[in-house]
Amino acid sequence: MTVNHHVRVYRSEEELPRDEQLAWKIAQVAVDPVEVEPEVVDMIINRVIDNAAVAAASLTRAPINAARAQAFSHPVSTGGKGATVFGCPLDQRTSPEWAAWANGVAVRELDYHDTFLAAEYSHPGDNIPPIVAVAQHVGSDGHALVRALATGYEIQVDLVKAISLHKHKIDHVAHLGPSAAAGIGTLLGLDAETIYQAIGQALHTTTATRQSRKGEISTWKAHAPAFAGKMAVEAVDRAMRGQTSPSPIYEGEDGVIAWMLDGKDASYDVPLPAPGEPKRAILDTYTKEHSAEYQAQAIIDLARRLGTDNPALRDPANIASIVLHTSHHTHNVIGSGAGDPQKYDPTASRETLDHSVPYIFAVALQDGTWHHVDSYTPERAQRPDTVELWHKITTVEDPEWTRRYHSTDITEKAFGGRVEITLTDGSTVVDEIAVADAHPLGARPFARENYIRKFRVLAQPVLDAAEIERFLELVQRLPELTADEVQELSIVAKKGVLASADAPKGLF
């Protein structure tokens, strides 16, 4: 059974025993030797495939080039073999924290991997790069890696269920630092005291503002989770060397909750597995069929359906207005409620466009499809009929969609909305969608074959056919992999692909 751990702020003169602190409770989950259930193992494999797919599609994009160049500016650290970097030969290694950095940027760049939304937002697949990097560095086998990934997913999802960061404009990667540190602790078989210290350091160093996802969204959006993963690796290293961290990091009078979140009167109930309870949180998460913010997934499917069924809706001359009634988050973060003029700017960056649901709805409606590159090109964004249609689209918050968005009942939790299209002749078209087609409760839930298809489509331009098959055969045996085989858990680009990418110079 799941146990709700009550968390509140403690004054300095109040006694808070270590074993009642949230960081210690998380560490206890990390050290629990419970085995990973078969369906969880199956989903972990799916998500390792998914991460590799979206990384392959990003291999020559500018943020990945920069992160990769930074990583290889540093030698492999002592104490291990180092770790692989997506796209590079398997024998080309860098230090694990820098591999976590480079691979984390590659995974997040297109905003195209898995998601979990509750009190907070998250991409739990961001746990995979730092944990795999450490596994390769120290020579862990597949069984240990699976257990570690189950921990990383469990802790991030549990924190996301209970503690809102965005409400206080703190970026969601503040839950990732602790989860990745906990996962690495499981991987290495560390004791609870060491993991506890690493969690505190990881949290302390990964709290930052949400400005990275506001206004003119920059390339840092992809770097933020990679930075959290890198900090988690470094926090574990420091903790293993006996270094301590601010304590209590969550509950302290001058801690994260008191000054960055809900304040001195705050309290939360964080659900954590009881001792011996399997770590199943990954099964509550879902991936993306489309390369866009998760709240846009269902909206893309709705727009595709509407445009295909009624092509007249694609012509802005026929449209008076389009209003999307949706949740508070969709309206205020990627909708017109954000108040960001950039969300209606045809010259905006890709990072901004994939956080503009008016733009996304317009393009999906007109094209009847969505493509991770073609849907964002300047030519596509600046097409006059698209701009005209786009500027007729607004969002409004609907309390019922907000309630469903925050529901703890998985059967009614929804990330979609209702669209009302008013035509120039005065007639209306009304339709709605609750969850994306690829969602576990959607029209076409993603299964192994879908993850493999996504990998093949995204990898084909940059990986040789033999490399695609090698990786897929390897990853699907994940829990049985030897330590030597874990060393090969990466993807190698076709000859010349990385050489064609710009390798910017910096300080290192």
Automatic annotation (TrEMBL):
Classification via SUPFAM superfamilies: 2-methylcitrate dehydratase PrpD
MmgE/PrpD N-terminal domain mapped to chain residues: 20-268
Domain MmgE/PrpD C-terminal, first and last residues per copy: 290-478
Any single Pfam family the record assigns to this protein: MmgE_PrpD_N
Taxonomic superkingdom: Bacteria
Family from the record: Belongs to the PrpD family.
The protein, known as: MmgE/PrpD family protein
Natural source organism: Microbacterium commune
Upper classification of the organism: Bacteria, Bacillati, Actinomycetota, Actinomycetes, Micrococcales
